[in-house]
Design a protein that fits this description.
- This protein is an alpha+beta fold.
- The chain folds into two domains: about 230 residues, Hsp33 domain (3-Layer(bab) Sandwich), CATH 3.55.30.10; about 50 residues, Alpha-Beta Complex (CBS domain Like), CATH 3.90.1280.
- A hairpin with a 2-residue loop joins strand 8 and strand 9.
């Protein structure tokens, strides 16, 4: 199934937006990493958040969101490129479900205290890294806080992953940003009111489309929309797996050769496993000894 993120502008280009039904994206990630329900929700929300940014990335940009937690969920990473490729992972993969008083997944408790790091790689020597403390752990609120504080862009973000006994039922997200403070207060108030009416976003997407969400919030104020295809696609390869073995010490490579066994190298981003033959390891050792 084709996954599309829809972006555009409204209110005479004073507002921009991006919205996605990310159900199939989150299903793919959950299956690849074999996640538990609460880790599916956590990674799914961050993946959805990074997918929303695809239309706003330039050709050579790579954007990465990293959440480091202090409780059961220790690490979540999601990355996107302008070509629509998105990938991500979470550690640990399996975590016992924690629910709040409403019976919903309690990501705040599962993640605990921590930081959100936004890494922008523009193809230069050094990426730009902006860290902020988590204010919620629910992810959408943390990303909203980042844009407001670090980039001075007033934003509204909703991210959701709905899980039932069969797995991922629905996932989606929307971001709205006020690009110019000249937008009248009454218009901002109207946007805020309409935004609240479509949240939780997963409940809205159960019966409506992403376009319906935009029409509900902006109506005739929408001036332009575009679509971008999104794929859960990693840049790993057999060759990169070989390169990773070159980081091992000579003695470690010799030990592998003595065992004469196939070495398995797994990609953290997509859980793909590459099988490295003994003769390939020998070749790496020979190159090191030159």
């Amino acid at each position: 199934m084709i996954i599309l993120v829809i972006n555009g502008i409204a209110y005479k280009a004073l507002v921009r937006f991006s919205v996605i039904d990310s159900t199939d994206l989150v299903k793919t990630a959950t299956k690849k990493h074999n996640l538990s329900p609460i880790t599916s929700v956590a990674l799914g929300r961050l993946l959805t958040g990074i997918a929303l940014m695809v239309p706003w990335l330039s050709k050579n940009d790579t954007l990465t969101y990293i959440i480091e937690g202090s409780n059961k969920i220790k690490y979540i990473a999601a990355q996107s490129k302008n070509n629509g490729n998105v990938r991500g992972y979470i550690l640990p993969k399996i975590v016992d479900t924690i629910t709040n008083e409403k019976g919903k997944f309690d990501l705040k408790s599962a993640i605990g205290n921590g930081t959100l790091k936004v890494v922008r790689d523009l193809g230069l020597k050094t990426p730009y890294v902006t860290p902020i403390k988590l204010i919620s752990g629910e992810i959408a609120e943390d990303l909203t806080y980042y844009f407001t504080i670090s980039e001075q862009i007033p934003s509204a973000i909703a991210l959701g992953v709905l899980v039932d006994k069969n797995g991922i039922k629905r996932a989606g997200g929307i971001i709205i940003q006020i690009l110019d403070q000249s937008l009248p207060k009454k218009d901002i108030t109207e946007i805020e009111k309409k935004f609240k009416e479509i949240t939780p976003i997963t409940n809205f997407l159960e019966k409506h489309t992403p376009i319906d969400a935009l029409k509900h919030i902006f109506g005739k104020k929408i001036e332009k929309t575009e679509t971008h295809e999104i794929n859960f696609r990693c840049s790993c390869s057999h060759q990169k797996a070989l390169e990773s073995l070159k980081l091992l010490k000579v003695d470690e490579l010799k030990e592998i050769i003595i065992k004469n066994e196939i070495v398995e190298v797994s990609c953290k981003w997509c859980s793909t496993t590459y099988k490295i033959k003994p003769e390939e390891v020998k070749k790496i050792l020979e190159e090191k000894n030159k």
